Amino acid sequence: MRARPRRCPLVSVMEEGKMSDCCDGERTVLLYACSGGANVAEIADRAARELMFAGRGSMFCLAGLGAGIEGMVQTARDADLNIVIDGCPMDCAKRIFDKAGVTNCTQFKVTDLGIEKQKGVRCTQEQVDMVIDRAEEAIRQA
Ligand code: SF4
């Protein structure tokens, strides 16, 4: 059973509307999920949020990158590491990074962990935990 994630100390700063980064040791780690409509996208989204609340990084708005909001693109460029979690081989989140020309990212796909993409199916905590473990491995290795 996974321990309940601790609250990120910087979340209160973010809740006040001031954008802030969380760190992994000395590094600024930003977390992105494709957050689409399928179960695998829900898994990616929930994993990114749980990682944020566990203090492993700061979830950042993929839509802002997709919209080309310069300050948000620059924040991604300035990060030490952007973890990009896509649900499936369509690679929507990674393609947004590619379009924005942001290269300091590590991407993986939920379907690569053996989880089938389905519509109209809620994800399970076990699936979310699998993605959290994979993301933590990516953070360690990057
Ligand atoms: S990567 Fe796959 S699951 Fe995620 S938004 Fe794109 S099509 Fe949907």
Please characterize this protein's 3D structure:
The chain is globular. The protein starts with 10 loop residues before the first helix and ends with a helix. It has 142 residues and is α/β, with parallel strands linked by helices. Strands 1, 2, 3, 4 and 5 form a five-stranded mixed β-sheet that branches. The protein has helices at residues 11-15, 39-53, 62-66, 70-78, 92-100, 125-141; strands at 23-24, 27-33, 58-59, 81-86, 105-109. Bound molecules: iron/sulfur cluster. Iron/sulfur cluster (SF4) binds at residues 34, 36, 38, 40-41, 86-88, 90-92.
Question: Which terms would index this structure?
Answer:
5-stranded mixed β-sheet; 142 residues; binds iron/sulfur cluster; alpha/beta; 42% helix; 5 strands; globular; Rossmann fold
Overall number of domains: 1
Residues in helices, as a percent range: 40-55%
What does the largest sheet look like? 5 strands, mixed
Bound ligands, each once: iron/sulfur cluster
> What would CATH call the class?
Alpha Beta
CATH architectural group: 3-Layer(aba) Sandwich
Blueprint of the fold:
Elements: H1 11-15, E1 23-24, E2 27-33, H2 39-53, E3 58-59, H3 62-66, H4 70-78, E4 81-86, H5 92-100, E5 105-109, H6 125-141
Parallel strand pairs: 2-3, 2-4, 4-5
Antiparallel strand pairs: 1-2
Helix pairs in contact: 2-6
Bound molecules: iron/sulfur cluster.
Write a compact overview of the structure shown.
With 142 residues, the chain is of the alpha/beta class.
